[in-house]
Design goal:
Blueprint lengths: L3 E6 L4 H13 L2 E7 L3 H7 L7 E4 L16 E4 L7 H4 L1 H22 L4 E7 L11 E2 L12 H14 L4 E7 L1 E2 L8 H4 L5 E5 L1 H11 L3 H4 L2 E5 L6 E3 H12 L20 E2 L3 H7 L6 H11 L2 H9 L1 H9 L3 H8 L2 H7 L2
Parallel strand pairs: 1-2, 1-4, 2-3, 4-5, 5-7, 6-12, 7-10, 8-9
Antiparallel strand pairs: 9-11
Helix pairs in contact: 1-7, 4-5, 7-10
Family: Belongs to the NAD(P)-dependent epimerase/dehydratase family.
Pfam families: Epimerase (PF01370)
Protein name: Nucleoside-diphosphate-sugar epimerase
């Protein structure tokens, strides 16, 4: 059997590493991974060096992609994500847009029949507090200051206008190995939140390899479905309980009222019916998260939970804007 050549970018990332493990388990593909070299990426990828071809490089540098040739399927996950993407817009554009353009050009030149599978984001739809049910055909309208979303929209357009065959998956909130950041407070508590686990998300891309004829030139919303939905408030309350942080008792104005994203994918079943990727529920996610927290750690955190929450509150940009009565920032975060 002639094995198909798979390219996986961003292989050391949360979803990328899950995709790599799933690809290896199938044992029917020749795999090339492209990633930024770092201590973390070397630690994750080098143990597989006898089973895959590893190319370290900067995707925004076209010459670094020169070794990428004769590819049948490209799963493109490499990206700079928030909050870094929003704090450093030039970097986000350099990697997310220019890097995608470089990869497309390289594939067009040396792998013209390659099928590109691109990971976009629910952020392209912008604030959906008022109308939380999202369809692929809805207007793309990023929230103010969401540079990550603008790079994804531009990259989507470039791919659609390229000579390659492609599919685009707009990922819901991917929860797993999630790090607490200031974004925690950017999201309104009444946000309709649909998640997907990294392993389910990876499975959609991996299973999609054999479904090119059904995915070709189409865009899909990728989310976990009805069993992976909750309000953001409920999601945080369950998360706090797992980590021993007690009640979600932050002061008023700690969380923004608007200008974020997320929602429920009204047409999310369209992708599921083709690639059959959903296995995890919201309960499964919380079970996995709970298993990561030892009883000793949970007890220790519960003892210092109030100082921890005070420290977290200091990260809240909406709260700081309210305290300082900054008119520009108040208008950005609050109704």
């Amino acid at each position: 059997m002639i094995k198909k050549n798979i390219l996986l970018t961003g292989a050391s990332g949360t979803v990328g590493f899950e995709a790599l493990k799933q690809l290896l388990a199938l044992d029917r593909y020749t795999i090339t991974v492209f990633d930024q070299e770092s201590e973390a990426s070397r630690e994750k990828l080098l143990p597989f060096k006898d089973k895959i071809t590893i190319v370290f490089g900067d995707i925004s540098n076209f010459d670094d992609l020169d070794a990428i040739r004769n590819i049948d399927f490209a799963i493109h996950l490499a990206a700079v994500i928030p909050p870094v993407a929003d704090d450093f817009p030039p970097l986000a554009k350099k990697v997310n847009l220019n890097g995608t353009q470089n990869l497309v050009k390289q594939l067009e030149k040396h792998s013209p029949t390659a099928f590109m599978m691109f990971s976009s984001s629910i952020s392209v739809y912008g604030d959906r507090i008022v109308d939380p049910y999202i369809n692929v055909g809805d207007q793309l309208q990023p929230s103010e200051g969401d540079y990550y979303a603008t790079t994804k929209i531009a990259a989507e357009e470039y791919i659609r206008n390229s000579k390659l065959d492609y599919t685009i998956f707009r990922l819901a909130a991917i929860m797993g190995n999630h790090k607490i950041s200031k974004l925690m407070f950017h999201q309104p508590l009444n946000t309709a939140l649909e998640i997907a686990t990294p392993r389910d998300t990876a499975r959609a891309f991996v299973n999609g390899i054999e479904k090119q004829h059904l995915l070709s030139k189409r865009i899909f919303n990728l989310g976990g479905g009805e069993s992976c939905r909750a309000s953001y408030k409920v999601f945080l309350e369950r998360s706090f309980a797992i980590f021993g942080l007690g009640k979600l008792n932050f002061p008023e104005h700690a969380f923004a009222d608007k200008n974020f994203h997320c929602g429920y994918y009204a047409d999310g079943d369209d992708l599921e019916e083709i690639v059959h990727f959903r296995q995890d529920t919201l309960d499964d996610y919380f079970k996995m998260e709970s298993e990561k927290v030892s009883s000793v750690r949970k007890i220790a955190t519960s003892i210092i939970k109030e100082p921890v929450k005070w420290f977290l509150l200091k990260k809240s940009e909406p709260y700081q804007a309210f305290k300082q009565q900054d008119p520009i920032q108040m208008k950005h975060y609050f109704n």
